[in-house]
Amino acid sequence: MLMKRYNCFILLLAMMLMSAVGVMAQSTLHIISGVVRDGDTGRKLPQASISVPGSHEATVTNSDGFFTLKTSSPPSYIIVSCLGYNAMKVGLDGINDRKLKIRMQPGTITLSEVIVSNMNPNEIVAAAVAKIPEVFSNNNEMLRCFYRETTQKGRRYIYVAEAVTNVWKHSYKRVSGIDRVSIEKGRRLVNVRLADTLGAKIQGGPTLPVDLDLMKNLDVLLHPNELQFYNLRMEVPVSLGDRPQLVISFHPAFITDHVLYHGKMYIDRNTLAFTRIEMSLDMSDEERATAAILMRKPPGVRFHPRSLDITVAYGFDNGVSRMHYVHSEVSFTCEWRKKLFASPYHVEAEMVVTDLLEDEGARISAREAFHPYNSFFDKVEMFDDPDFWADYNIIEPSESLEHAIGKIRKNSH
């Protein structure tokens, strides 16, 4: 059953393998970097989208609000957008190698609370689901993506995996057709000295844009048979760039034979396209939550789930909506036999679409495809190469992650 239960499974890190193939030719790229903050408070803004008008080149800010965007030609300006803020057109003339300091202003919505309260959230969601084949891409497309997965034990990073992937997406008009992912280039780093180290992997790994495409996998949340288990409620609308968003919260209404979620849906008021869905696993029943999250663990370990949070965001480009960003994180503790204290773990995975490849004839064969049961493997020393991602757009690592990579490398030799 496709993603009926969003599973996360635990494997020994020694079992995690990845096949990395393909090397991108060196090319001359133009690099734009900077930090994005709230214009009023100065707070750094994560997950802000940075894009180049007239192209499909894009990235997002990291948890420190920092970004680097590599473009094939020098753009005259970039567009910066973030949920709840007005979109910004940032000119690049004369910046040379300076880092941009971008301050965004909160967006305002003119919809009155009276109008919002009179809207029927169930009817809005049903209409938005019916519009999916119309507002989402009708073409078969090849997306270039960047994926990162990290595992922390307490505050220490013990595992880092990264990959540039190609994602073949079939038209949203098709009721059948297999979306596929292939690995363009990848690397991993693991602290092998921690004898009790666990590696946690969200189902699918680099296949997140396939597994968590909620516009195609309706059974996860949006199918009428699934929505009947939820209470929907209109919330205060927000803006995304210059586009007003209807906000609908959802919460479990009944006890079912499978786990449910709490969260919010963001729907473009003009097109009725889903732009963002945030969902958190209902943790009220630990046994049920464990069954949904855990597929395998080492013997002698008691597993206690704490949280599973998922964000799926879709971008709007020239009148077409398509997947843009996926983020997933799970927290849990493990009690080891003959150990006094439990070990807390946190696993985070994120993927951003960095480009839309133009070769319409390209597709990914079943032989080339990366499958959910595959895992990562690459040589540790590849993290010593400062130009490993020279030709690719990535999500810049946060300062804490960069510091952790140095520590893991020292402990891995």
Task: Write structural notes for this entry.
It is a single chain. The chain is mostly beta strands. It is 12% helix and 40% strand. The strands form four sheets. Strands 11-10-9-19-18-17-16-15-14-13 form a ten-stranded antiparallel β-sheet, sandwiched between helices. It has a four-stranded antiparallel β-sheet with strand order 4-3-6-7, with no helix packed on it. A three-stranded mixed β-sheet has the order 5-2-8, with no helix packed on it. The radius of gyration is 21 Å and the shape is globular. The model is unreliable at 1-26 (pLDDT under 50).
Number of helices: 7
Sequence of strands across the biggest β-sheet:
11-10-9-19-18-17-16-15-14-13
Class per helix and strand makeup: mainly beta
Q: Give the total of beta strands.
A: 19
The biggest beta sheet is recorded as:
10 strands, antiparallel
Question: SSE string, helix = H, strand = E?
Answer: EEEEEEEEHHHEEEEHHEEEEHEEEH
| Beta-strand percentage range | 35-45%
Mean pLDDT: 81
Contiguous uncertain segments of 5+ residues:
1-26
The backbone outline, from C-alpha atoms, is: globular
- What is the rounded distance between the termini? 42 Å
Amount of helix: 10-25%
Radius of gyration of CA atoms, rounded to a whole number: 21 Å
Features of the shown structure:
four-stranded antiparallel sheet; about 425 residues; globular; 7 helices; single chain
Topology:
Blueprint: E1 8-11, E2 30-38, E3 49-51, E4 58-60, E5 66-71, E6 77-81, E7 88-91, E8 100-104, H1 113-118, H2 121-130, H3 132-135, E9 141-153, E10 156-169, E11 180-190, E12 199-202, H4 208-211, H5 224-227, E13 230-240, E14 243-252, E15 261-268, E16 274-281, H6 286-293, E17 301-317, E18 320-336, E19 343-357, H7 399-411
Parallel strand pairs: 2-8
Antiparallel strand pairs: 1-12, 2-5, 3-4, 3-6, 6-7, 9-10, 9-19, 10-11, 13-14, 14-15, 15-16, 16-17, 17-18, 18-19
